[in-house]
Write a structure and sequence with these properties.
Alpha-Beta Plaits, Dihydrodipicolinate Reductase, domain 2, Rossmann fold, alpha/beta, 6-stranded parallel β-sheet
Amino acid sequence: MKKLKVGIIGLGTVGTGVFNVLQEYNDIEIVKIAVKNINKPRNIKNLNSNILTDNAFEIVNNHEIDVVIEVAGGVNPAVDILKAAILNKKHIVTANKELLAKYGSELFKLARENNVIILYEAAVAGGIPIIMPIKTILCANKITKIAAILNGTTNYILTKMAEKELSYETALKQAQELGYAETDPTGDVEGFDAAYKLAVLSTISFNKKIDIKKIYREGITKITAQDIKSAKELGYRIKLIAMGQVLEDGKIDVRVHPMLVSKKHLLAKIDNATNSIMLTGYPVGNLVFTGAGAGAEPTASSVVGDILVLKANLNASDNPNPLPQAICNHNERANQIDIGDTYNEYYLSITASNSPGVIGIIGTICGKNNINISTIMQKGINTDNTAEIVVITEKSKESDVQNALNELIKSDSIQKIDNLLRVMN
């Protein structure tokens, strides 16, 4: 069997994991590894410094290399490097969700034109197998809904806020100390990471191009300890949910934001840094994929799995374009709806004056905007003679809810709107 020759771009946490796992395979040779700083001390067993380069184009222009493994992350210069690799007829294995979310259509088109393929199992949920199952064994299904926890950092923070009654700031600091969160956690806590993953996952699940710019995104930075406590009292856990669904009219609703999830729901039981993906399709019904969504070894598992699949197909066939089921042919753009046109149940936290009739004012404004209240409760009186009020609505249109909020905040009886979260039962 022909020895597969690969080049690796990136030798950080994931790249090191991939390098270590590939040492187990005598029929795979790592020809070159591109790094930012070639002189950086690296305590990596069996690493030959002679194969390191600080010029990634030495890899993509090397005629010996069959597969380029991109695990550096980011968009620039990754997009130009991978375009050059594809034009040089090299297959791609990548874990770069941001790159695929923003430039996937362009890269997949270029790959088809050059008879190479791009595999990206590690890009969505680390070690959880999800991309290839959708493309292969689940290809007979029409997938209509995704509900997922796709970011381990935010799930860890929300878990500790619930378990230990920590503030957001304290839970974030703990996550940073343990290495779950970056020094600048914006990509995770503001929902960017989950949105990139959802764009990739929704594109292959619904077989239509999802525009990352049209995905509604909201992070967890506004979640308070009181929100966590109130949700718990009402029978919910708060999770950052990545959701995609095909509506009855064929339009697609794709968004990432915190949600109150019923304690009875499986996603409410997914804690710490674990990821979980729920798919609904016909004829299979409901499926759940759960496991480690990040980390060196879980992610390396998916990256090396893609490499081995490529290797087996290349050795088994003279066809220059193996794995036809893995080729992305998403030519039709999804008709994505605006968040204002979605329907949800809502959790609303309000600070109001402790005065007669304030509950009635809230009810009147909600009713005026076509919103039925399911639950309303006052949490007590504060020292400044204000009251904390929590409202759970029946299913309502987002634009109606936003109109009601604008009216509420103008009322003399309402001090502030503390938070608005959507509810998933």
